[in-house]
Amino acid sequence: MKFEKPASSNPIDKMSIVGKPVNRIDGALKTSGLAPYAFEQHDVVGNQAYGYIVAAPIAKGTITAYHLETAKAAPGVLAIVTAENAGTIEVGDFNTAKLLGGPKIEHYHQAVAVVVADTFEQARHAAGLVRIDYNQDQGKFDLASEKGAAKVSDEDEGTAVGDFDGAFAQAAVTLDATYTTPDQSHAMMEPHASLAAWEGDKLTVWTSNQMIAWAHGDIAKTLGLDKENVRVVSPYIGGGFGGKLFVRSDAILAAIGARAAGRPVKLALPRPVIFNNGTHRPATIQRIRIGTEKSGKITAIAHESWNGNLEDGSLETAVQQTRLLYAGENRMTMMKLAHLDLPEGNAMRAPGEAPGLMALEIAIDEIAEKAGIDPVEFRILNDTQVDPENPDRPFSQRPFVECMRKGAERFGWNDRPRTPASRREGRHLIGMGVAAAFRNNLLLKSGARVKLDSKGVVTVETDMTDIGTGSYTIIAQTAAEMLGVPLDQVDVRLGDSRFPVSAGSGGQFGANCSTSGVYAACMKLREAVIRKVGFNSDDVVFENGVVRSGSRSIPLGEAAGEGLSEEDAIEWGDLDETYQQSTFGSHFVEVAVDAFTGETRIRRMLAVCSAGRILNPKTARSQVIGAMTMGVGGALTEELAVDTNRGFFVNHDLAGYEVPVHADIPRQEVIFLDDVDPVSSPMKAKGIGELGLCGVAAAVANAIYNATGVRVRDYPVTLDKLI
Ligand code: MOS
């Protein structure tokens, strides 16, 4: 089904199940430990052995010799695989560095061998006995010193509208400030883990991955296999945040280890290896210049960003939101990429906007103060209803002003201390901060198969994943609504490359796109049912487990006969070119900063979100409060510390890389604007999972400024920067 024009109405609009805050249908399985995550796939195949990674202790260089004899002789060892005996190891479409290195080493903790043994302990012990000689090369590891050598990349040439330099030179109020965001790690709860099993030349990998079709293609490509001979299964995923968008070394090491050992092999990356072996969000340096009239109206805005990556690595597109968020006639954006030999930089939750808004939304706070305007009013004053770089292109929907006003009222913004460092409660300085939330709404083709059996049970199959977000539940709600059956008559099967290819879980596109794919398949199934029973399609209703037309009504199971199965995918027309589709919000934060130690505590947070129709307010709220919590980490604690001599992230575990938890934030509130976006899809929904993160860190930093009078432009805002 091609989605080409704004939807008027459709069966979803009934909203008898969609839009309700129903509990997760997989919740009990997860909380009781019965949902098998990749490393817990004990029963799918017998005789499982264990793999353990050997990771390079240098960032750049060449392997000169392997010494494997001692490790091979260790108890329980079944096989050791390195680049010398692994067979084909290509670079996948979605990776930059090889997932098994050698002889060339491209980054610290790149995998160089896998040891397979009968037990996990034996594999780990033997991995410690592997000796490898290296020739070490000098790498480049410091973004600040490589900034001058950075270049505009083919990915993005930058944008320019009007005459920025001229307008900035004449502006009544100006800001020219530079901000930095550090390298960050996804730090998901479940480590990267896989179980691989061969049957002849057919490989099955049970793994933890957000994007089944990408994983399927890249496992095949990396190992030089036909895609038909590879199956990927990923029914449950303990978080990804972008770290599991792409195949990582666990899947490849398990596969080559299993082939060498002649047994299924299970392998999880140890936490201390994940931070350097996996991907991370690259650090940025961002220069922002804003010029306004006396009134506070923006006349000139420029955003430049620098980040580093491996050769052939990608940009962190931190200027993305600045192209769309505020009005202003004269504007420019530019990104430059430096070569660094650090581990691979890649997508982390809201790539682009998350670090981009960390900088932009402090800058807006600063220029508003310079112009003598309240920061909420400043944002409202500079709202735009069209893409400011292409004024012929309206937003499909943009209630940004409403998000700001509603948030300010609900949060009690009027009570904000007017001057920084002016409110004290005991030993604490109290402050409030605000920031805009913005994230684009992306559309990816998404397919599904829907079956109806003779008992009236509906089964949905799609390779969509549930990374903790609630995909199982909203897909069940969608199918139940479309076919008029209760939720418990719907069986949802996800995360298998044998199912139709979906959008997958990423870029906050999963919910809207995957349910739209299920919608398309359900439409086809409805037509099949109508044909079968011979009703006139004009007045047919699917309701309470029956298909009805006028006074005739037939139970769905009966209508299905031997059973029906239909498959379809949602594809997108060019509405995306006619309209700019984005999601909007506001974040409000109150902090207490210890006047003696400089330690910041979050007292309360509020997010107001506009993201089209909310398919399930309970799972959507969970997405947003989780994202807000993550944003507090970005503001206060998260930073991969780079060893600029040896080229690795020093704090490579959850003791050294700190992320906040629920107990760190006593009060979080989420408000969804009651809106639908008919342009976005037949579901009229948009993404919410990343919007909740975008802007949070700046709202915290702005609150800290309001509390203390100290403006910190380098994240994270740790206590040493306040004292
Ligand atoms: Mo998100 S970084 O696209 O998982």
TrEMBL record:
Pfam families given in the database record = Ald_Xan_dh_C, MoCoBD_1, MoCoBD_2
What EC numbers are recorded for this enzyme?
1.17.1.4
Q: Which InterPro entries match?
A: Ald_Oxase/Xan_DH_a/b, Ald_Oxase/Xan_DH_a/b_sf, Ald_Oxase/xanthine_DH-like, AldOxase/xan_DH_MoCoBD1, AldOxase/xan_DH_MoCoBD2, AldOxase/xan_DH_Mopterin-bd_sf, PaoC-like
The answer, when asked if Oxidoreductase is one of the entry's keywords, is yes
Q: Where is the Aldehyde oxidase/xanthine dehydrogenase a/b hammerhead domain?
A: 32-138
- Work out whether the entry's keyword set contains Zinc: no
UniProt GO MF annotations: xanthine dehydrogenase activity
Q: SUPFAM superfamilies per the record?
A: CO dehydrogenase molybdoprotein N-domain-like, Molybdenum cofactor-binding domain
Q: Which residues cross the membrane?
A: none
Q: What keywords are annotated for this sequence in UniProt?
A: Oxidoreductase
PANTHER family documented for this protein: ALDEHYDE OXIDOREDUCTASE MOLYBDENUM-BINDING SUBUNIT PAOC, XANTHINE DEHYDROGENASE
Return the protein name: Xanthine dehydrogenase YagR molybdenum-binding subunit
Look up and give the organism this protein is from: Rhizobium halophytocola
